[in-house]
Design goal:
Strand order of the largest sheet: 1-2-3-4-5-6-7
Structural class: alpha/beta
Strand content: 25-35%
Number of helices: 7
Order of helices and strands: EEEEHEHHEHHEEEEEEEHEEH
Largest sheet: 7 strands, mixed
Shape: globular
Helix content: 10-25%
Radius of gyration: 16 Å
Distance between the termini: 28 Å
Number of strands: 15
Length: about 210
């Protein structure tokens, strides 16, 4: 677990595609789950144990984008914690085909694993939990409907598969767009303070300064 000035972050590596599922909480014990990728029973148990042991209350479940590895645990998370599911509406054409994508990747999933979102989020929205807020940044390119979640006070941003340590997200999957990806990175993420810590959808964290130069 990483403790910042205001937020605590616990990352779980989930499913065969090794997605980073984040549980983010503040001092009140309110929390959000970002990119629920848990599919195996031990993955679900690990997330549940952490939440229970730390007396956390899940307020929202958020998908940075609708690719299968980032949404496999949506249905379980909604049922287990009773929290609303949030994502960008532009990602729905991909999300609605999640079962087919799951089959293509040899994953065991059903339609009930992918419930309808309770609310669509847009750039400029603020997702409040406890005493904190995550600001929604629209960052398409890797996939339509991709968003990043920015917490300026702690100087951290969760970017999904937009940018990684020493790399960027692929754009050859459905609704990917290389020009949009470049614009999202250069004009949005790289405009944040250079000390901002980037938490990606896979792999290790990095910083704006490191990736920018």
């Amino acid at each position: 677990m990483e403790t910042n000035e205001k937020l605590k972050i616990r990352v779980f590596e989930c499913n065969p595609l090794a997605v980073n599922t984040y549980v983010i909480s503040d001092q009140t014990g309110d929390a959000v789950i970002v990119d629920p990728g848990m599919v195996a029973e031990d993955e679900k148990a690990g997330v549940k144990k952490y939440i229970t042991d730390n007396n956390l209350t899940i307020k929202y479940i958020i998908a940075t984008h609708p690719h299968i590895d980032h949404v496999l645990g949506c249905g379980w998370s909604v049922k287990e914690f009773g929290a609303p599911l949030l994502m960008h509406e532009d990602g729905m054409p991909v999300y609605e085909k999640a079962v087919a994508y799951g089959v293509a990747f040899g994953l065991d999933c059903e339609r009930d694993d992918f419930p309808e979102p309770d609310r669509y989020i847009l750039g400029g929205d603020e997702i409040a939990f406890g005493n904190e807020k995550l600001k929604v940044l629209e960052t398409p390119g890797h996939c339509a409907g991709s968003v990043s979640l920015y917490h300026p006070d702690d100087g951290i941003v969760f970017v999904g598969d937009l940018v990684f340590q020493n790399g960027v997200g692929r754009t050859d999957l459905p609704t990917g767009n290389a020009l949009q990806l470049s614009n999202s990175i250069r004009n949005i993420i790289f405009q944040l303070p250079e000390t901002t810590i980037i938490y990606p959808g896979h792999g290790l964290k990095t910083t704006v300064r490191y990736e920018k130069y």
